[in-house]
Amino acid sequence: MNAPRAHITGLSAKTKFFVTISALVAALLILTVAYRFLFAPGASAPSSAASAARQPMVIEQTHTTPVPEDAARVTPAGFLKTRSGAVLPRFASIARENVVVRGGPALQYPARWVFRRAGLPVEIVAERGDWRRIRDFEGEEGWVRREDLSARRQVMIAPWNRKITHALRARPDDGAPALALVKGGVVASVLGCDGSWCRLRVANMQGWMRQPQLWGVYADERVQSTASAAVKR
């Protein structure tokens, strides 16, 4: 009678051994799956995506369609009047692509550079007949024909530092929500300025930005949006 009991006891020990091994393997698999779920690189993606959805978009570059030429009227004070009836200096924009900038106010002067893109803001600093001496945001000067310029007011967002973004705000208030973050060098259309803030259109969005952040308007200049005003080039 001892032999059968010994046989049964040995079989039970083997069963316990295999059950123990199976339980350890199962626990190891569960830990492995849990580790991959909790610490895998993509595990935090949903929360990151939700966070990104709450952030304003970043605008790096845009080919903004300018506002109509008669939509902005400049009312500067203390500027020099010219024979054309305009004031100096004043801002304008490049009217078309491939505008040649020359070393003097005539076609026989050599070309200095070419504006490949329309809509870029420039500063008019002198006049001679139908020629205008302009200055770009880097301080370079040259002469273009009057018809190469548009009275549309355009600005560049802080072109002196293209690595920084600037908030386009819903209202002219530093505490207003940011509609977008605009990188330095982006060109925007001016819809109006009150001497401290400008209302801009950039990438089909409209918002406000402080005037000192812009090249293409003077720091305290007022630009009124009217349908009947005209600006001399």
Question: In short, what is this structure?
Answer:
This protein has 233 residues and is of the alpha+beta class. The chain folds into two domains: 2-53; 57-225, SH3 type barrels (Roll). The protein has helices spanning 2-39, 45-53, and strands at 57-59, 72-74, 80-81, 87-88, 90-94, 99-102, 111-115, 121-128, 131-135, 141-145, 149-150, 154-157, 165-169, 178-183, 187-194, 197-202, 205-210, 214-215, 222-225.
Explained architecture:
By secondary structure, this protein is of the alpha+beta class. It has helices at residues 2-39, 45-53, and strands at residues 57-59, 72-74, 80-81, 87-88, 90-94, 99-102, 111-115, 121-128, 131-135, 141-145, 149-150, 154-157, 165-169, 178-183, 187-194, 197-202, 205-210, 214-215, 222-225. It folds into two domains: 2-53; 57-225, SH3 Domains (SH3 type barrels, Roll), CATH 2.30.30.40. Helix content is 20%, strand content 36%. The strands form five sheets. Strands 2, 12, 15, 16, 17, 18 and 19 form a seven-stranded antiparallel beta sheet that branches. A five-stranded antiparallel beta sheet has the order 10-9-8-5-11, with no helix packed on it. A three-stranded mixed beta sheet has the order 1-14-13, with no helix packed on it. A hairpin with a 2-residue loop joins strand 15 (187-194) and strand 16 (197-202). The longest helix has 38 residues, at 2-39. The protein is elongated, with a radius of gyration of 34 Å.
Give the name of the CATH architecture of the largest domain.
Roll
What is the number of beta strands?
19
CATH fold-type name of the largest domain:
SH3 type barrels
The low-confidence parts are: 1-9, 40-50, 64-78, 226-230
Q: Which H/E pattern describes the elements?
A: HHEEEEEEEEEEEEEEEEEEE
Number of helices: 2
CATH homolog superfamily of the largest domain: SH3 Domains
Separation, N- and C-terminal Cα atoms: 119 Å
Number of domains: 2
* CATH class group of the largest domain: Mainly Beta
Largest pleated sheet: 7 strands, antiparallel
Mean pLDDT: 80
